[in-house]
């Protein structure tokens, strides 16, 4: 995730590559882990993953698909 190559550059590339990418990646992973352990997550009205949209060099999530979150309760 923090790699900087010519095939993967969300954090830039070369001399000015992002120095904040390490804490940024850790923070994102921590937030995702928290959501996954504390919530049930599903796509509304679907059983499988929606097809990603490819636009130029980008791969983006389908903005028309809704994601539903339900906080888990402790039993
Ligand atoms: C998801 C979060 C972040 C993304 C997507 C991101 C992305 C980028 C990108 C694309 C660049 C330009 C690199 C280039 O010119 O080649 C950059 C530069 C930079 N980023 Fe980030 N960044 C993030 C978080 C952070 C954080 C948390 C910090 C500091 C705590 C930070 C500090 C910097 C600095 C100082 C530069 C300029 C580096 C230079 O010019 O040498 N970034 N970032």
What topology, given as strand order, has the largest sheet? 1-4
Backbone CA Rg: 16 Å
Shape: flat
Sketch the major β-sheet: 2 strands, antiparallel
> How many domains comprise the coordinates?
1
As a percent range, the share of strand residues is 15-25%
The beta-strand count equals 4
Give the distance, in angstroms, between the N- and C-terminal Cα atoms: 35 Å
Output the helix-strand order: HEEEE
Which hetero ligands occur in this complex? protoporphyrin IX containing FE
Can you give the mean pLDDT? 93
Task: Note the total helix count.
Answer: 1
Family: Belongs to the cytochrome P450 family.
Keywords: Heme, Iron, Metal-binding, Monooxygenase, Oxidoreductase
Protein name: Cytochrome P450
Pfam family, one: p450
Gist?
The chain contains one helix and four strands, in the order αββββ.
Write the layout of secondary structure elements.
Elements (H helix, E strand, L loop, with lengths): L20 H18 E5 L9 E3 L2 E3 L6 E5 L4
Antiparallel strand pairs: 1-4, 2-3
The structure holds protoporphyrin IX containing FE (HEM).
InterPro entries: Cyt_P450, Cyt_P450_CS, Cyt_P450_E_grp-IV, Cyt_P450_sf
Protein name: Cytochrome P450
GO molecular function: heme binding; iron ion binding; monooxygenase activity; oxidoreductase activity, acting on paired donors, with incorporation or reduction of molecular oxygen
């Amino acid at each position: 995730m923090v790699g900087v190559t010519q095939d993967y550059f969300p954090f830039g590339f070369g001399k000015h590559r992002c120095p904040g990418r390490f804490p940024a990646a850790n923070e994102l992973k921590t937030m995702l882990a928290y959501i996954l352990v504390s919530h049930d997550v599903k796509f509304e009205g679907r059983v499988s993953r929606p097809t990603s949209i490819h636009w130029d060099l980008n791969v983006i999530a389908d903005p028309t698909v809704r994601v539903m979150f339900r906080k888990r309760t402790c039993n």
